[in-house]
Design a protein that fits this description.
Length: 63
């Protein structure tokens, strides 16, 4: 799913993550002990994971 705009951080009430066209997670800061720091950590962790996966795929395609 491609979004045309991104809600500014001060106006966000939730973070919604998609895989293709399917919503896979909704995270609400302040609920169940989740903070903005937790969300940022999760995002960075996912970016690192997908960067490694992309590198592995690229390596396989080169061979």
């Amino acid at each position: 799913m491609t979004k045309k705009y991104k809600t500014s951080q001060k106006n966000r009430e939730s973070y919604i993550y998609y895989s293709g066209s399917k919503k896979i997670a909704t995270i609400l800061p302040g609920k169940n002990g989740v903070t903005e720091i937790d969300i940022r950590f999760y995002i960075l962790k996912m970016i690192r994971k997908w960067t490694k996966v992309a590198a592995m795929i690229t390596e396989l395609l080169v061979i």
